[in-house]
Amino acid sequence: MTCILVTGATGFVGRPVVATLAGRGDDVHALYRDRPLAGTPEVTWHRVDLLAAGEIERVVAEVCPDRLIHLAWHTEHGRIMQAQENVVWVEGSLRMMRAFARYGGSRVLILGSGAEYDWSDAAGPLSELRSPLTPATLYGAAKDALRRLATAYARQEGIELAWGRPFFLYGPGEHPARLVPSVIRSLLADRSVAISSGAQIRDYMHVDDLASALLALLDSPVVGDVNLASGVGTSLDEMVDEILRSTGRPELVLRGGLPDRPWEPPLLVADVTRLRDEVGFLARRTLAEGLAGTVRWWQEQGWRSGKDASEYRAAQP
Fold first, then answer.
1. What's the total number of domains in the chain?
2. Does residue 118 contact residue 132 with C-beta atoms inside 8 Å?
3. Which of 64, 104, 126, 169 ranks highest by number of CB atoms within 10 Å?
């Protein structure tokens, strides 16, 4: 039985990762700060402040995990790209990795970001092997710095390091102010929602597919950087049109109601050759299936026409 430690276990990505691990028969230890997930009796939960001195060392010494999935990071919506906490998380992540090595860990998977790439050079699919890594934000720079330091440390200590690099995500449990939930919630509540021109093309992946991709990467012998994405470009207009198939009310979408941001590239799509050929994974859900399921999830939360709610303006893609 493999002992797996998961950080960020109660987050948007962590929830489906832990739910999938819970059914595999591994010895799963998940970390939380506020409260654990309900309905996961197969998982051992540990309350930890990952940035507090000595806490992660205490848990790692107690658990002695074989594998580590590090998903935790500062994710405050609207601040993540510029937040000073990004620097602190580099320090905390390296401290955790040292503890993991000290107590016999063998393979670690860390969640990176598509923001590590040079988006100004995104004329085609972004490749782990060919595309430059020149992040334009503190968030992207912090992730890239952690990748470089963790890679060197893993090589020195004889640990396997896989670096998973997701692009754009959607699905149940996403922050309500982000693009997909803000459009869905507004339409279900019969409220107008403003979007930009809709021409921007992005690589969207359902969060459950990302969880499956992460575990496929963890179980594989692949090390180094791996894009975790669909490999398919989808425009904002296409995303909204697909949502409208489940919600109706196209007159509520104010296309062009928000200006395009001039510094954002028109195309951000991943090259998924490594994910497909080396890890052996491809996204399973079509955009239609994933968005229809996401609309149903919001409906199940009681978000329906007539609900008293403030109007949401869609975030840029």
1. 1
2. yes
3. 126
